[in-house]
Amino acid sequence: ARPGRKPLTGFADIDISGFDEQTMEDYRAAFGDGNEYEWALRMQAEADETAQDDT
Amino acid sequence: DELLKSSRSRRWTKKEEKKYIERGEKDIEAMRQRMVDAAQKDFMARSSGKPAVYKLKLLPEVMNLLGRSVLQGALVDPDINLIEAIRFFLEPLNDGSLPSYTIQRELFTALAKLPITRDTLIASGIGKVAIFYTKTTKAEPNIKRQAERLLMDWMRPILRRTADYRS
């Protein structure tokens, strides 16, 4: 990883399209589509923006 | 674990051990319900601007149960689904904030010691919240690393079937 880069992993972006249907179904049940908590990430980003605006 | 089991079986008769595990399963089921209730109460508390304390209060008892290694099979049993309750504990609160650092640290450490299976992963969806922890900027680096490590371990049983078939 490049130094200083946000340690964001690509787990949500794993390409599972080459797997059989059952595996893809299992994968989604176990790990979702990567957007399950998108609302929380959005709220966190908004809170950060507001905090920055206040300073 | 096998050693522990065999040393236990020397001390206990099979019947005693079976009874202990059955009682343990009941404890796990009851704990799951208490964890779900605590998570809901914290959600409600946060909605009305009060501090979320219920999960944190219950945490020592949860950790005590997770430490009972003889019960490992039942702790990850997809039908009892205690792991889903752990997911509820780790989920962000309704204002997008994370549960207390103690909850994160204790539960991620405990998860790493449990023999999580493919069925446990599918029933609990615990991987979804682990992915969230790799993405949020609000988690401490050590927690993010723990989540990443767990995900790498957990991907294997889900993707293995196809890999085995291909090889």
What do you see in this structure?
The complex is a heterodimer of chains A (55) and B (167). With 55 residues, chain A is mostly helical. In chain A, 51% of the residues lie in helices and 0% in strands. Chain B has one domain (2-166): Conserved domain common to transcription factors TFIIS, elongin A, CRSP70 (Transcription Elongation Factor S-II, Chain A), CATH 1.20.930. Chain B is built from 9 helices and no strands. The model of chain B has no long low-confidence stretch (mean pLDDT 91).
Order of helices and strands of chain A: HH
Largest sheet of chain B: none
Low-confidence parts of chain A: 1-9
Strand content of chain A: under 5%
* Fraction in helix of chain B: over 70%
Number of helices of chain B: 9
Please name the CATH topology of chain B.
Answer: Transcription Elongation Factor S-II, Chain A
Pattern of helices and strands of chain B? HHHHHHHHH
Q: What's the CATH architecture name of chain B?
A: Up-down Bundle
Low-confidence stretches of chain B: none
Biggest sheet layout of chain A: none
Structural class of chain A: mainly alpha
Q: Short summary of the structure?
A:
Chain A is mostly helical and 55 residues long. Chain A has helices spanning 21-31, 38-54. Residues 1-9 of chain A have low confidence and may be disordered.
Helix-strand layout with pairing:
The complex is a heterodimer of chains A (55) and B (167).
Chain A (H helix, E strand, L loop, with lengths): L20 H11 L6 H17 L1
Chain B lengths: L1 H10 L2 H34 L6 H13 L5 H4 L6 H9 L10 H13 L4 H7 L1 H10 L5 H26 L1
Helix pairs in contact in B: 2-3, 2-5, 3-6, 5-7, 6-9, 8-9
Q: What are the defining features of this structure?
A:
heterodimer, A: 55 residues, mainly alpha, 51% helix, 0% strand, rod-shaped, disordered N terminus, B: 167 residues, Transcription Elongation Factor S-II, Chain A, 9 helices
